[in-house]
Amino acid sequence: MSMTAQTVWDNCLLFIQDNITPQAYKTWFEPIKAVKLTDNALSIQVPSKFFYEWLEEHYVKLLKVSLTKELGESAKLVYVIRMENTYGNRQPFTEKIPSTNRPSTMKSQEVDAPFKNKNPELKNPFIIPGIRNLQIESQLNPNYNFDNFLEGDSNRLARSAGMAVANKPGGTSFNPLLIFGGVGLGKTHLAHAIGVQIKDRYPEKTVLYISAEKFTQQYIESVKKNNRNDFIHFYQVIDVLIVDDIQLLSGKAGTQDVFFHIFNHLHQNGKQVVLTSDKAPVDMQDIEQRLLSRFKWGLSAELQQPGFETRVSIIKNKLYQDGVEMPEDIVEFLANNIKTNIRELEGAIISLIAHSSFNRKEINLELAKRIVDNYVKHTKREVSIEYIQKVVSDYFQMDVDTLQSKTRKRHIVQARQLAMFFAKKLTKASLASIGSQIGKRDHATVLHACKTVDNLSATDKQFRKYVEDLNKKLTM
Ligand code: ADP
Ligand code: MG
């Protein structure tokens, strides 16, 4: 029996069918047509370039084994990519065509499959090869959502603008929504949360999260591969485009240009754009003016450093999610010492938990201090007057309001004097400023308090113990 492309392929299919799930077989092998057999090379026609890439990535071994069985060790497989109708008159991909004799009438290209299990050259990670319509994988991280993005004064505007956008993408004046702020303050988290919520409410919308860095790489690749138009087209069909860290576009004129066009297209078509940046638009450098002005069309919302209360709730929420308990004073110690970066705060919590569980030691202040020092090594820890009052009032089991009150009760007066004493000792604040922060007293009161504490600790043993305990708590 003479071998034809069809018979060889049919035999391969029998083997393949035995080795994969029916679903995979139906999806990836039924649509293939055997088109040509010359010597030991079988040509198969696949519906798209993505299809080809998928086969190469997932089934190359199977194809090789089955084909070798049929045609011997020197078997070769040639893919013919038949462009789908939906691609209309668009230029076919050209990047992988070896300089062979391609029939010019056929909109197809032949690709030698070298059976090298290398990554296909241009892998668009966002495309799940589908035979009919291409789906775009959102690249969203469901762990970053609104539920676990805790609200505080520092993020209220950005968070609620994000919510508004998520509830009505493209339908608010926040387009683009630009979220900006320092490192580790939640830009990426919030950007994902918006996307996740949109996907939740509008599953049919195409949402894409991408870092500006990856966007740039893809763009450069597309220029190399001569398919810049495909790149642009890909981005133009998206309903909600989220680009993280756009400050990274600075100095990259080509990428900025292409982004400008994509942006305009999306914006004109009522699609939502969400951007993040570590700088406010005015401070962005080497970004074209026309792009900067686009960024300002919608709303720029800043994520600021969270206040003490917000830091405490972020820590507690994190501990709760991890199912870990931690004494209150340690939570406050962490919140008080790591202020400018939530990622570092989380990092410190994680190492604290790890240290204590590996070494079977309980989490105590001493361990917390060691770990915090690793995180804020170079900046000397400075305690705030706020924190001092908190520690002192906790120590005497009263609340801060009581400590600040006008009462003359002796133990409250003493607590207040101790707070003033430590504020003078441990901060650079002036007497006047200390006074005004601790119950609106004047500088003379603070001075008097410092002297009293000095005197009492020299004469009163019990009182000296208070000073020593508090000193430990505050400076350790
Ligand atoms: P950025 O992108 O601004 O550098 P991230 O979004 O990566 O910061 O945030 C750093 C870490 O802090 C993440 O783990 C994030 O979940 C957490 N985080 C930031 N803001 C909040 C918040 N408001 N509530 C809870 N976690 C937060
Ligand atoms: Mg980020």
From TrEMBL:
**Domain I, interacts with DnaA modulators, as annotated region:** 1-86
> Where is region (Domain IV, binds dsDNA) located?
357-476
**UniProt GO MF annotations:** ATP binding; DNA replication origin binding; lipid binding
Q: What keyword terms does UniProt attach to this protein?
A: ATP-binding, Cytoplasm, DNA replication, DNA-binding, Lipid-binding, Nucleotide-binding
Q: Give start-end ranges for the coiled-coil region(s).
A: none
Ranges for domain AAA+ ATPase: 173-303
Task: Tell me the PROSITE patterns matching this sequence.
Answer: DNAA (PS01008)
Where it sits in the cell: the answer is: Cytoplasm
Q: Which InterPro entries match?
A: AAA+_ATPase (IPR003593), Chromosome_initiator_DnaA (IPR001957), Chromosome_initiator_DnaA-like (IPR020591), Chromosome_initiator_DnaA_CS (IPR018312), DnaA_C (IPR013159), DnaA_dom (IPR013317), DnaA_N_dom (IPR024633), DnaA_N_sf (IPR038454)
Q: Which residues form the Chromosomal replication initiator DnaA C-terminal domain?
A: 384-453
Where, by residue number, does ATP bind? G184, G186, K187, T188
Q: Which family does it belong to?
A: Belongs to the DnaA family.
Q: Which NCBIfam families match?
A: DnaA
What is the documented function of this protein?
Plays an essential role in the initiation and regulation of chromosomal replication. ATP-DnaA binds to the origin of replication (oriC) to initiate formation of the DNA replication initiation complex once per cell cycle. Binds the DnaA box (a 9 base pair repeat at the origin) and separates the double-stranded (ds)DNA. Forms a right-handed helical filament on oriC DNA; dsDNA binds to the exterior of the filament while single-stranded (ss)DNA is stabiized in the filament's interior.
Q: What is this protein called?
A: Chromosomal replication initiator protein DnaA
Organism classification, top ranks?
Bacteria, Pseudomonadati, Bacteroidota, Flavobacteriia, Flavobacteriales
Q: Which gene encodes it?
A: dnaA
